[in-house]
Structures are given as C-alpha cells and as structure tokens.
Amino acid sequence: MIENASAQYPASLAPENRDRLIDQITRHPAIRPLMSQNKISYKQIMLWVEQNIDAEK
Fold it and tell me: What does the radius of gyration of the chain's CA atoms come to, in whole angstroms?
C-alpha cells in the first residue's frame, strides 16, 4: 500500500509530502478501521513510511 501511495508522490518525499502520503494511507478503507480499533497507530504508519523511504535510497 505504501508503494502505491508513494507512486502518487514521485518527487523526493520531503516532509510536507510525507505528511500527505501518511494522511492518504490513514484514510485508506483497509487502514482506517485498524486505527480506530487501536491495532495500529499513526506513529507506526509514520515509521513504516520512513523505513520504506530509507530502503529505497
């Protein structure tokens, strides 16, 4: 899912673009219920995005 969302932000993911990417991920119908049930947190998603970006470098 992160790969699909990051494809919409092809520019280097500067902090403001990362925020938009994370917001897009948290609105995804598969992710939103998990967040509302406290199964995953915004911080976890943020860390996953950061790890994915670091892995691509």
Answer: 11
